[in-house]
Design brief:
Helix content is 38%, strand content 20%. The chain has 624 residues and is an alpha+beta fold. Among the domains are: 148 residues, Four Helix Bundle (Hemerythrin (Met), subunit A) (Up-down Bundle); 134 residues, OB fold (Dihydrolipoamide Acetyltransferase, E2P), CATH 2.40.50.180. β8 and β9 form a beta hairpin.
């Protein structure tokens, strides 16, 4: 890369990735618009301009293969804009392939500074695009069925009032509906020329369709057009956003965390105990307000809506439904829900695995659905919402559901559980599908069936201090709920003491704290202790014994803190509850290795260290 072009190249890479993600979902939505008469010219022009801009910058920087592909994709879109061609499923597939090539080219340029290694795929894709421009069938795309009728589903009610439901897959029967559309020049928005033609003959999708006998039709009087209101003049506004490197945002969050710790060290200094410092306390209160506000602003800079992540899944479901011959409605809700950028990056792979699983294992075939009295179209609902200090992301389908007996049989066969499993709750049985290598699929496909994806889902979510909950009804469908903290930098917790060790228990995991529990403790034949709590027997975990701390427990036996992870519960015994704290999470030093039951640490106002407990890990230790 030349030094004088370095800044332009970096800008090109950033804008390229953003544009590709945006217009891919726009293309899918345009495909679902139905007929040419319903095309959104503004969206179509936005896609056209993206290819045009990418071609121009790539040409300036000398990326010739990217130029050749984007130029032909731009030409195909221009024909559609002028109503000389249609956005058929074949053309959408070609344009999606062009976007895939552009994404690959961006990655290649970032790694090597050139796109020369992409000569072969550029030529192959260019030939297919040229074939479409010439009215020939592309050689590398299998024949596709005629386009279905308009299939945009009405949005369902949602918390943010914005829902999107798109149908993917082949129609139940070939649709024979030759159309003729008259487009006025005013309806065609061309960036460079004014088109004054009426295109009455719309070219169909190069399929042999047996035409019905032509009939003479009575002319229909056109309604008069309403008077056109002159557009109001636009007021020029300055750009209200800038791009900031993520590393700088991370540094900002770290500094804000250090500031909060320093503020507490000053305002809660032991040397101030007993002193009457009215002015100091007023200043300390003001400082606390400012640091809290600064913390909120710093956190908000990293918060992004899940919209772009969700809309990337449109292409995934489209390709899967077409490959499997299923009809699938992808219903998006809560796209405006904001979470930390690091959370969005971490949940991408789990969402892909869960959606692939829903489309492959969850949604039944058209024939199976009709036989079961269901609609031929299966529905996958992807939604997000805030719940307390968490974000809940749900993937729900109305397909086959999870067969409890089949899951238990496979778990017993693989030695994951002992006995028959009859005593297990449904939620506990469904958690077995996350075991490494676990799969109930009759055969392995290139989409799923190897038992790898669900294990990845659970591990990735647990790294975020989150958890996965599963509910399912056989024959009706399943729901996977990802419960994830809004941010990974700060945790609301309860500070507790065990001997001389201070620990923080995440507040969202605490159900209740109980004193005087000793008379409810029972020792099982295998030596483990359980506590009787609200009609159930919970595993008991005294932290003093778990970490082999010296000294003796307090005379009253300490305090029982009941924690939960999904439907699992555990009784944690501590010496004392100190109080609720908002703590900045720090990673444990690498020389400590991977201590059991801990997810990090925090510095308290007096300079002491508090260890943050990992509730999921503690439960796993008790179950082992």
């Amino acid at each position: 890369m030349q030094d004088d072009n370095q800044e332009i190249i970096e800008e090109f890479l950033v804008e390229g990735r953003e544009s590709i993600a945006e217009i891919e979902s726009t293309l899918i939505e345009l495909e679902q618009a139905g007929g040419d008469a319903e095309l959104d010219d503004e969206s179509l022009n936005r896609v056209f301009r993206t290819f045009h801009s990418m071609k121009g910058t790539a040409g300036f920087l000398g990326f010739s293969h990217l130029v050749s592909v984007t130029h032909k994709a731009e030409s195909l879109l221009d024909r559609v804009r002028k109503r000389e061609d249609r956005l058929t499923r074949r053309n959408i597939t070609l344009l999606c392939r062009a976007l895939d090539f552009a994404a690959r080219a961006v990655d290649t340029v970032e790694e090597s500074g050139t796109d020369e290694t992409l000569a072969a795929p550029a030529v192959a894709l260019g030939e297919d695009l040229q074939a479409a421009l010439d009215g020939r069938a592309p050689v590398s795309i299998a024949p596709v069925e005629p386009d279905p009728e308009p299939s945009v589903m009405p949005p369902a009610d949602d918390d943010d009032g914005k829902g999107l439901a798109l149908v993917f897959g082949p129609p139940t029967a070939p649709v024979v509906n030759p159309r003729a559309t008259s487009i006025d020049s005013d309806d065609v928005d061309d960036d460079h020329t004014n088109v004054e033609e009426d295109h009455t003959n719309v070219e169909e999708d190069h399929t042999n369709v047996e035409e019905e006998p032509r009939r003479k039709v009575a002319p229909v009087a056109k309604e008069p057009k309403p008077p056109v209101k002159a557009p109001e003049p636009r007021v020029a506004t300055a750009n209200s956003s800038i791009r900031v490197d993520v590393d700088k945002l991370d540094q900002l969050m770290n500094l804000v965390g250090e500031l909060i710790i320093a503020e507490r060290m000053v305002t809660h200094n032991n040397e101030l105990t007993g002193l009457e410092l009215e002015n100091f306390h007023k200043a300390a209160l003001q400082l606390n307000r400012i640091t809290r506000s600064l913390q909120d602003v710093a956190m908000s800079t990293r918060m992004l809506p899940v919209r772009n992540l969700f809309r990337k899944m449109l292409r995934l479901v489209r390709d899967l439904s077409m490959k499997q011959g299923k009809q699938i409605v992808l219903d998006l809700h809560g796209e405006g829900t904001e979470v930390d950028k690091s959370v969005i990056e971490a949940i991408g792979d789990p969402l892909v695995h869960l959606l692939r699983n829903a489309c492959d294992h969850g949604i039944d075939t058209v024939e199976e659905r009709i036989a079961a009295g269901k609609s031929p179209r299966g529905t996958v609902r992807l939604g997000a919402r805030h719940q307390g200090g968490e974000v809940h992301i749900t993937i729900e389908d109305d397909g086959r559901g999870i067969d409890r007996d089949k899951v238990l049989a496979k778990a017993i066969e693989r030695g994951i559980i002992s006995g028959t499993g009859e005593h297990m709750k449904d939620s506990e049985v469904f958690q077995l599908i996350f075991a490494p290598g676990f799969s109930t699929a009759a055969q392995v496909t290139d989409i799923s069936g190897r038992g790898v994806g669900m294990d990845v889902v659970k591990r990735n979510i647990e790294k975020l201090r989150g958890r996965v909950e599963v509910t399912s009804t056989l024959g009706k469908g399943s729901r996977f709920t990802l419960r994830i903290p809004l941010t990974l930098a700060i945790v609301e917790g309860m500070l507790v003491r065990v001997d001389d060790m201070l620990c923080t228990i995440p507040l969202l995991s605490i159900r209740e704290s109980v004193s005087g529990h000793q008379d409810r403790v029972t020792t099982l034949p295998d030596g483990r202790d359980v506590v009787h709590y609200r009609g159930e027997f919970l595993p008991l975990l005294p932290l003093r014994d778990f970490y082999s701390l010296p000294g003796e427990a307090p005379g009253d036996g300490g305090t029982l803190v009941v924690v939960e992870d999904g439907e699992r519960q555990l009784g944690v015994v501590v010496d004392e509850l100190i109080g609720q704290r908002q703590t900045v999470i720090k990673a444990l030093p690498s020389f400590l290795g991977n201590p059991r039951g801990l997810s990090g640490c925090s510095i308290l106002s007096n300079g002491e260290i508090s260890l943050i407990l990992d509730i999921n890990s503690l439960m796993a230790q008790c179950a082992a």
